[in-house]
């Protein structure tokens, strides 16, 4: 064995356990995609079931509201992406104006917190405070003389409830990257601007915003890959049949078709379409990020 | 040169501070509300009048939850999951990040392995093949079903490998000059100076394991094997959303909801508590950890 290989051998040994686990639990399911082309019967297994070509994909078009579900997914995801880009940026800009370190850090600690709680816990809280009869929010609305809103049971309000509660959970965490970008701006630029008589607004428009533009572009481009991820955890924990019309997304549809109705082949076909589109979008977005923001993942 | 703030600037700063404080409190108040509900009497909670302070203070809901065998069984399954799962996650993250942080010249298969791991975040087989694979490896219904499929957190590996690559090259060269091999360099040099990054990823791993609910729900056939969040999912979320479907003001149903409200609040709060405790302890590390790992100059 050559000297170079002897130097690299420990590195290969380090990678061995992780490689085996990833082969089994990540690449294994990729092989399992054959189920999408089969009339899958669990007792016959992945390789014993009958091959039916594209039948599952044809049947997909017969799923009632398939296109509605597709649209719901894209709508909810895109709204979340837009709000998730703007709200953290504005919040970071406002927080950046604060000079008092302790106050600033206190605010940060509070706004990051919801990110670390699960959607099961947050749903428990939301179901409670958004309840139409005795929920805290509706009681508040009633004291202001407004009609109570059935946030989780009204198909009109449901998607917006999803979007707003997602922003509420994640905006604080999203702020981190923008704050980092803001601290990276050269302070002498501001000093020079002040010398030239620039006020706060001019400084913001001519120094701060251009300073974080590349980060904003990068995050926008990278979010492209998430257009079909409207948030399974959140939707699954908050939705109910009354809001399927506007709240059902691809991932929840796959769950119900596959694990509840036991239509394994069909559910895998739906999942495959989603994976292929998402994969294409992610690869595209990484290429764009590399070209326009010179970003590399590693 | 000193700048005295103008009146407009002072007004802005005051308004801004108040605004930021209000927004920050909005992130905390729902949690305080659930704590207040859990410490209120059933009757007070049912009217929805409990705000941030308990009404008719009582710990009876905690006593009731304390007497629930299933709650504690699932609580300890979650604790067990964290205690086994987090060290495995971290060990694998470190063992993968180190080789992949080497330049291609020093580790010729680097590119191959980077893509091998990276592809798993870009593409996956979907829900059904994932379930079938886990079933075929025979770990269904055991704690390993909750640990092994997610044992390699590829995203964390990338964050750590970026962190490793930012470390000064001279340190490593000095270690090699002193005769240190890869294992010694990793454990005696890289790991000790990467404490902020490792602490950050440990927090993520703890939170991930503690908060997981879906895998428990579908990989465990027996509800007594559910970790806490899966258990809560079935007793709180499912239970209430079925109530939402039939909005009939049936007396019996109302009664069951009333007595459940404070108990559910107590269970939610207990489930959130470990995060509320761990988070502030590790928080000071994670900002620098994330930033160094994700945004590069």
Automatic annotation (TrEMBL), chain A:
A Pfam family per the record: BPD_transp_1
InterPro entries assigned to the protein according to its UniProt record, in alphabetical order: MetI-like, MetI-like_sf, UgpAE/MalFG_permease
UniProt-listed Gene3D superfamilies: MetI-like
Keyword annotations from UniProtKB, A to Z: Cell membrane, Membrane, Transmembrane, Transmembrane helix, Transport
Subcellular localization(s) per the UniProt record: Cell membrane
Organism superkingdom: Bacteria
Residues of the ABC transmembrane type-1 domain: 70-285
Transmembrane segments: 12-37, 69-95, 107-127, 171-190, 211-232, 264-286
Family to which this protein belongs: Belongs to the binding-protein-dependent transport system permease family.
PANTHER family, alphabetized: BLL4140 PROTEIN
Name assigned to this protein: ABC transporter permease subunit
UniProtKB/TrEMBL annotation, chain B:
Ranges annotated as spanning the membrane: 12-32, 82-100, 112-131, 143-164, 185-210, 264-282
Family: Belongs to the binding-protein-dependent transport system permease family.
Protein name: Carbohydrate ABC transporter permease
SUPFAM superfamilies: MetI-like (SSF161098)
Source organism of this protein record: Paenibacillus spongiae
Compartment(s) where it occurs, according to its Swiss-Prot or TrEMBL record: Cell membrane
UniProt main location, coarse: membrane
Domain ABC transmembrane type-1: 71-282
Key words, A-Z: Cell membrane, Membrane, Transmembrane, Transmembrane helix, Transport
Membrane-related topology note: Multi-pass membrane protein
Domain of life: Bacteria
